[in-house]
């Protein structure tokens, strides 16, 4: 387990987003990236995507709620042995959840090595 403050974790997530290719982020309109300590259901998931993937929608209309990508700080920290591993896992989790935004299935994400 890695000990990391909320501020340090937020910085790691920001760095992770900055490290992603512009093409991956290009269509992420109306998507919020959030950090929570842990999921409300107590599960061990590292992150989750809440919304409608690009494959499931046409166009956002006025007043649409934003999609959300949530990273769970405590679960990610517990999953990693050191800061280097945590940095890498944050990036993998971001890619994994962004892939869901684009409509890529869980099975395909695993085939590609993103989760």
Strand order of the largest sheet: 1-3-2
Helix content: 40-55%
Q: What percent strand?
A: 5-15%
The shape, in one word, is globular
Provide the residue-averaged pLDDT: 91
DSSP strand count: 3
Ends distance? 19 Å
Coarse structural class: alpha+beta
Helical segment count: 5
Q: Secondary-structure element sequence?
A: HHEEEHHH
Query: Taking Cα atoms only, what radius of gyration do you get, to the nearest Å?
Result: 14 Å
In terms of per-residue confidence, which ranges show pLDDT below 50 for 5 or more consecutive residues? none
Described by strand count, sense and barrel closure, the largest sheet is: 3 strands, mixed
Summarize this structure as a short list of keywords or feature phrases.
single chain; about 120 residues; alpha+beta
């Amino acid at each position: 387990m890695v000990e990391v403050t909320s501020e340090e974790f937020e910085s790691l997530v920001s760095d992770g987003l900055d490290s992603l290719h512009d093409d991956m982020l290009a269509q992420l309109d109306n998507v919020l990236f959030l950090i929570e300590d842990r999921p409300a259901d107590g599960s061990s998931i590292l992150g989750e995507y809440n919304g409608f993937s690009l494959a499931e929608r046409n166009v956002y209309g006025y007043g649409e709620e934003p999609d959300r990508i949530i990273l769970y700080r405590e679960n990610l920290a517990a999953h990693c042995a050191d800061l280097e591993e945590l940095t890498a896992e944050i990036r993998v989790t971001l890619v994994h959840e962004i892939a869901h935004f684009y409509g890529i299935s869980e099975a395909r994400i695993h085939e590609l090595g993103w989760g």
